[in-house]
Amino acid sequence: MTKRLKEPCVAASHSIKTRFLLLFSEFAIPLLGADQSAMPGLAPAQDWKLPLFTKDGFRSMSLRGDRVFPVSSDRIDVENIEITVFSGDAAARVTSVLLSSQASYFPKENIATGPGAVRVIRDNIEISGEDWTYEKEGEKISIHRNARVVFNMKLGDMLR
Question: Does residue 30 form part of some domain?
Answer without folding.
Answer: no
